[in-house]
Structures are given as structure tokens and as C-alpha cells.
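call fold(seq) -> C-alpha cells
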Amino acid sequence: MIDAPLVLGVNRTRDASVCLMQGAHLLWAIQNERLTRRRHHRGQLGDFREFYGPRLPWPERPIDVVVECFSSDADMRNLARYDEELASTLRLAPDCRRVRISHHLAHVYSVFHPSPFRDAAVMIVDDQGSQVADLTDHWSGAAYVPGDWREVASFYRADRERVLCIRKQLWDRDDAHPVGLGMFYFLLTQAMFPGEGNEGKVMGLAPHGDARALGLPPLEVESGQVRIPEGWRAVLRERERFHYDQPGVAFTDCANLAAAGQRAFEDALLEVAHWLHRETGLPDLCFAGGTALNCSANERLLRETPFKAVFIPPAPSDAGTALGCAVYGLTEAAGRSGAYRWSQDYLGPAPERSAIDAALLERDDISIEHLSGRDALCARMLDHLRSQRVLGLYQGASEFGPRALGHRSILADPRHAVMRDWINARVKQREWFRPLASAVLEERAAAWFDLPGPSPFMQFAAPVRPQMAAQVQAITHVDGTARLQTAGPEDDVLLRSLLGGFEARTGVPILLNTSFHGKDEPIVEAPAEALAAFRRMPLHALAMPPFLITKRVEPELP
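ret:
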């Protein structure tokens, strides 16, 4: 691997991120928010000087290829300053190749090339990407579209030799009527939950409402193009009526709007997927863009379209485009084989043992057990879980995407609804209606969930089998579904040991698994952040192998 090129991928958009590869070996990938501690932190000047450069483990050798993607006009006007900062912060090879690619093309290389497929249809759907003038995916329509147009959806036919863009949906930013599925869901979210990154709240609220109550029409879909009817545009302008948790706003109105919007989004997405299947005739689908985090819609893609398999990466939103940039640099700029497959998401740089030891120096308020071996640690964790205590789990490299998959997780007993309510109210301090996810042994999943295949990245909400739902009330949503992570034989050893041990003690091969962070914070990254969050939150224990940490004054039990 010594002669393999060192390739850096940089996402300068929302959910800014970087990814470093040496040949087909991914060294690390991380979102900027994990370093700045600001959720959904957008890329900006100073990122490399202040955060990426000093905080990440850069190799001794120089970087051979740098690939970046942007989607902001302001960023495009500052390219020279970005270049200057990068060159002054990192060690670049004298003949370093510098490439910029468009936003949706970076999404494509993040989802198809790391997928298991030989060829596939590719669907990229988000609120808006690059300006048409900056497109680099050789779409034939780009030359014929004047004005300030942005890509909102892109569709491709891809194989291991080429990527062919077959159609895009564009939106003119001078037009007062936004279009596209991503923009629709963004506007729907803003009507109820203003701010950034609140789409999951809409998805969680939707099952509490009646999709027909407001009499809203379906979205208009034709040949992969989605438009928002006037009936929807009028309702989405009624911010005072639907702004959740504001004086005079009825919960029922918000829930009904969420239900109608989720249904309209899902139905339109399925129509688009059917169209794409007719256009390509391919059996497999790759799906990325921010809308691919909608796990309820994703489950319907699996069940209700002609596609035989659907690959959604752990980070389908803008964060994943850094990995896409790196893969593009490896395959297109360096001309090497794109052998990397996104089979696990523990891509962050692993903490040094010295950082863990340093975080544990201040121990006046905590007790620390040093446990020799995974079995001893697992047994003590199971003791706590079995006695209705809530644990933090911090181990190894962090997850790159937004889902906690057992390295930066909060774990709890899934059997009683009070556990969900207590974690929402006391631990995460968020809305009562939000569902909590689960982890399950892959080989036991079919007995508990109706899901056609593994779900290692927690990207699907599957129906809980009715005869099992009463045994897992804390992870069963009001509509009878659960977002789940399946842990297979090749997945994290400690997580599988916990699931197997919990089944041995309770008969349930499932744990409640939600991301380890406080209110309005990103997932914890460093050991010191994990300890600080543990102290602030009413968690009962924190597993940080080889240590198990408890509080001298224990919080109340749920």
C-alpha cells in the first residue's frame, strides 16, 4: 500500500466533512460538527487551520489528490482563499492534483461505488445542490438552461466503468415556487419546527396524525419531476397555525400536517422510483441525498417498488459527499480501482488510550471499575441494563453518519414504554412523541420485525411483529414500527455480546439504542466529551472499555 495514492475528500457544504483514503483503504472520515461541537456545521474558511489540521491524525507522507465539492455561491467566490488555507495547513505533494466536483456527483460516488452492486440505478434527492453552471457530471441538459438554476434531484445509470446522468430536476432560485421532494420536506419541516436538521421530528410526529384530515392533494409527479401544488404551498405558508409547541397551536393540526406531508412525500418518492426503474431496467437502486434519511419512506422503497435491493449508505446526507469526493479522486483523478465498500461505519479516528486516561483523571464524583476482558465488561453492563439503568457506550472509532451504531450509543432495556418516555424527557430533553431506535441480533431479527433483509445502518423503519410488540414497548412507535440496526456476525463484537447476553437473561435479543449526545449537541467524539455528557445527563453508567464508570450519587431510575 506504500505506493497507493493518498486522497483527501472535502465537503464544504452543510454537514461539512472530510475523508482521507490511501488507495482503497479508508483511513478516517469525520463530520466537522464532531470537532466544532456545533450541529450541522457548514464548511467555512478556517476549518483546516482551526479544526481539521490540528485535531486529526494526518500521515507523514504528502497528499497526492484533493477533491472538493461546494454548493454555495459565496464559497465559489472564495475558492482562492480556500486553496491558500489548504496549502498552508496540509502537506501536499508537489504534483498534487486538485479537483472540484458538483454536489450531486459527489453524492453519486458516495453511494454507488461503495455499494455491493455491479451496476445500479442511482437516485439523488435533496433540497438543492450545485448551480447548473458548476455541474461536472456531464448532463446533456446543462447547456440549454439559462438562469440561476440549482439541481434538486439527479438520476443516473452507473456501473463500474462509467456513470451516466439520465435526468435532473432543476429549480430556478428566482422562482417563488420551489420544486422537488427535498425542498418540499424542508418547507414542511420549517412550517412546524423552524431551524436546521429537524426533519426527523416531522417523521416521528406523522404517525400521530391523520393524513386525510386537511384534505391536501398529492404532489405532482411526472417523469421523475416533482412539483408542489398550490394547495400545499398555501398551507405551508400558515406558519402561525402549525408552529409546534407555540401558544394557540393545536397538537392535532401539527400531527395532521406531518402525516399528510409524510404520506405525500412517500407516495411521490415511490412514483419517482418506479419511473427510474422503467428508465433503467436495473434491479438494484442506490439512494442518497438528505431525503434518504427518511427511514419510513425507505422501508416502502424496499417493499413497493420493482427494485430487488436498495443500498442507502450510513451517511446519505451532505456529510457523505466527503467520502464521495475521496472515491472520485481515487478512481477518476488517480485512475485506481474503486474497491472500497461501505460495509461498516466506524470511520472516525479512534481515540488514543492516553486521551481516555486523561479524561478519567478528575474522579471525585465518579467511581471507575477497570474490567479485564470484554466478557467481564459485558456482564457488568448487562447487570445495569437488566436493573432498568441507562448506559452510555463509548468505544473505538466513532460513527461517521448520524446514527449511533454501538460506538457512541445510549443503551437501555427496550421492554417498557416508561424507558422511552424517561429517555426522551430526562436524558435527551426532547419532544415526547419522538421514537427511539433499536439494535437486534441479525439472526433473530426476522422473528421480531417484518423486514426483508439486514439493516446494519439503521436506515429502515420496519413493522414490529404484532405478537412481539408488547415485549418491546420502548422501541415500538405508535404506528407499530421500529427503526432498527441489525448486528450481524461480522459486526461489532461488544454490541453482539450485549445483545446475546440480554437475550440470555430476558429472552429479548434487542436493546434500545439511541445516539450519545445531549440536547442540541452533536454525537460525542472525544473521551472528555463523553465524560462531560455523562456528567450532565442522568445516565447511570458509562462503558468506556476497559472501564465502567458510575456516579457516586446515582440518578433516579426510570
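Residues 208 and 255 are 6 Å apart (CA to CA).
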